[in-house]
Specification:
It is a single chain. The chain is of the alpha+beta class. It folds into two domains: about 1-120, Medium-chain alcohol dehydrogenases, catalytic domain (Quinone Oxidoreductase, Chain A, domain 1, Alpha-Beta Complex), CATH 3.90.180; about 125-190, no CATH class. The protein has helices spanning about 65-70, 80-85, 125-145, 165-175, and strands at about 1-5, 15, 20, 30, 35-40, 55, 90-95, 95-100, 110, 120, 180-185, 190. Helix 3 crosses helix 4 (about 165-175). It is globular, with a radius of gyration of 19 Å. The termini are far apart.
Length: about 190
């Protein structure tokens, strides 16, 4: 398969052929690009996913057991950054191996992921649209609704109207703040 490989920070990505390894006990192999796709095969202990399931990939994983995860706040896991391991996902040849960032590595034809990194979805939306949910929507909408606590009547300024900015605007709008007026030049909404 083809994958974009980063050999050194600050250097360009190299698109090259690599060999994905077979999934282990808690890993599905996801076909697709930009963190959404279809499960090709699953590891022996994966129980909530099957081949053919459509999924969205997320860098926010949940163990499902600690206090933060049980409360629905996996981003607060104390062990999230400290102990999460990034599995070897691809053989580069010449004894070199590659790990995916945050255990994802989705800049490839296939990605080997932990089961906690995927969410099964039932929709006809194309993967290109679903991929936005796994990052931009969580990054933009979530803070507007949860972190910033936007309330009706608040004025909100969003600089930049890409995937994250548009999601922040939607989050602010969902709070039933003032009617949305947008300036395309700066992505400002009030």
């Amino acid at each position: 398969m083809r994958a974009a490989v980063l050999h050194q920070p600050g250097k360009p990505l190299e698109v090259r052929e690599v060999t994905p390894r077979k999934p282990g006990p808690h890993e599905p192999v996801v076909v697709g690009h930009e963190a959404a796709g279809t499960v090709a095969e699953v590891g022996s202990e994966v129980t909530h996913l099957r081949s053919g399931d459509r999924v969205i990939v997320t860098p926010i994983t949940s163990c499902g057991r600690c206090a933060s995860c049980v409360r629905g706040e996996p981003y607060l896991r104390a062990t999230y950054n400290a102990t999460d391991t990034w599995p070897v996902a691809r053989e580069l040849g010449d004894g070199l191996v590659a790990r995916g960032w945050r255990g994802l590595g989705t800049f490839a034809d296939r990605a080997l992921l932990r089961e906690q990194s995927v969410v099964r979805v039932t929709t006809d939306l194309p993967s290109e649209q679903l991929a936005v949910i796994g990052c931009a929507v969580m990054t933009g909408l979530g803070p507007a609704v949860n972190t910033a606590g936007v309330r009706p009547g608040d004025t909100v300024v969003v600089v930049g109207a890409g995937g994250i900015g548009l999601s922040a605007i939607q989050g602010a709008r969902m709070t039933r703040s003032l009617p949305c007026r947008t300036s395309p030049a700066v992505g400002q909404t009030t």
